[in-house]
Amino acid sequence: MSVWGGRLQRSCSRGADRDRQGALFMLTAAGVMMKTAFFSAKAYDRQSFGSALQQRQLAGFEMVWLEAGLNLETAVLASGCQAVCAFVNDDLSAPVVERLHALGVRMLALRSAGFNHVDLSACRRLGLAVARVPAYSPYAVAEHTVCLLLTLNRHVHRAWQRVRELNFSLDGLTGFDVHGKTVGVIGTGRIGTVFARIMTGFGASVLAYDPQPAVEVQSMPGVCLTSLEQLIEQSDIISLHCPLTEQTRHLIDAERLSRMKPGVILLNTSRGGLIDTKALIQSLKAGRLGGAGLDVYEEEEGIFFADLSERGLQDDVLARLLTFPNVLITSHQAFLTHEALHNIAARTLQSLLEFSAGQISAEARLV
Length: 367
Ligand code: NAI
Known about the structure:
By secondary structure, the chain is α/β, with parallel strands linked by helices. The protein has two domains: 14-136 and 337-356, Rossmann fold, CATH 3.40.50.720; 138-329, Rossmann fold (3-Layer(aba) Sandwich), CATH 3.40.50. The chain is 32% helix and 18% strand. The chain contains twelve helices and 17 strands. Helix 1 crosses helix 12, helix 2 (94-102) packs parallel to helix 3 (120-126) and helix 4 packs across helix 6. The protein starts with a strand and ends in an 11-residue tail after the last helix. Residues 113-114, 135, 138, 141, 186-192, 209-212, 214, 241-244, 247-248, 269-271, 295-296, 332, 334-335 line the site of 1,4-dihydronicotinamide adenine dinucleotide. The site of 1,4-dihydronicotinamide adenine dinucleotide (NAI) has 31 residues, from helix 4 and helix 6.
């Protein structure tokens, strides 16, 4: 017997059977066979999930590794699977989740913290369970944000290129001390809190804005909670760590960019849609911004994680952004540490296991 999507069903012993929706069931010594279509699979995913599966000896779990990203066309690849494992640029809009549901998929396991790419109300309507990885390493993302800041401020990306060409001149490479500066942190959840703590370690003063600030940040030495508008006007460095929602889309628009201090460094390792990219380009063209360090881009889907070096870039906005010497872009890699990958794999497998046992724990469950 196994609980499936909250419903108690009979499964045949050591064999395969099909339930009413056509989903494949198989009872093994380890329990119910859980077949999961793993979209946007990269080599590092196969490694981290492979070793997590081995460690737990989950004989009843099977991953179908798919290099393809998930969209309306590729959804069919999940045929015969009860679960889909998806990443940040996979399309989980209503038409896609409807197609997955029609194929017999009953659970979506997001291997990300953010879930702005999922139509949760459609999942709710269909009775599709959704789990995410609420926290896998806030340090990975916060440390990458620091990496963007220091690289940009001290022009390390340009210095590296120069020295390789035997140009040892320092012209144009002057930065500033982070010590003594004011750093604005928008969103003081797990990642924002770690980033704020690191910045206080540099000797910077932190201005933090969050409608629901984390308890830890409220009493952190060197951190002052403030309004968004004050933070925008007074910070030398601004870092975004809030989720992308309808309320936060284009939080950084032309008007707010115009009120920032001249020379401000803007950092975004959260979600691309938080910044109006066209307004950012105007601000960069006007020479108002000191720099922009971006790990995310609002139209990154289909670009980030892909090798386009042979095909070239179709996105003119991103192409323009890449022409500024004071813009540093990484392709959504802030999460990419061994520790984070290990934790993502462990939590995702845990959620799949919990789902097959009938109940995903509250910390990971979205629907
Ligand atoms: P979290 O849920 O712990 O914290 C988010 C915070 O933002 C909360 O305290 C919330 O109250 C606050 N917030 C909500 N609306 C706000 C607003 N309008 N203004 C200011 N703050 C607001 O999330 P966590 O783990 O810190 O992650 C933050 C974001 O980082 C995620 O939403 C995700 O988009 C992004 N992320 C990016 C990664 C990457 O590889 N680049 C990896 C992991 C997360």
